[in-house]
Amino acid sequence: xxxxxxALCALTSVASATSPLQNVQPYAVTGDAIEKSLTGQAGDAxxxxxxxxxxxxxxxxxxxxxxxxxxxxxxxxxxxxTGIGERLSAGQLRLRIxxxxxxxxxxxxxxxxxxxxxxxxxxxxDGWRNKPVLTAEEIEDLVAYLQTLRR
Length: 151
Ligand code: HEC
What we know:
34% of the residues lie in helices and 0% in strands.
């Protein structure tokens, strides 16, 4: 059966009206950084410190180690984040959390501010589909916290 054009148009407009991309606001990349806060405000370092340890939400310590509690629960797949606030600026940290694949398409680090499509090729667990992994506020909290990490 072939669909009439009007039917396709109707379907497309329904899809875009409920698009998960609504949860991701545009941002500008300059060099290897996103200079502007995603929320227009500074994040809360204390909330960021809590979030980075939440293995079931931020996932960071599945791969990274750093000066966080419970070292035996931290990962070894990724660079240690000790002193990262001295090596990377806020803008550089932001881009790495938002979408590190822009710098290294082969990176295993998830894109945190992007939407994982819900299709047959991506077997992502239901709770993670069709929305960014973290909100803009949560990313700003992490950026604020990581900036405090000095050796
Ligand atoms: C699945 C593993 C994985 C997860 C989960 C992950 N990362 Fe990463 N991350 C990496 C790897 C691997 C790198 C090294 C760079 C690359 O792959 O291009 C990296 C790089 C980084 C860097 C740059 C480090 C440097 O020395 O330059 C920062 C900052 C960072 N991650 C922060 C985070 C934060 C914050 C989270 C949680 C919100 C997180 N990562 C979650 C794997 C991960």
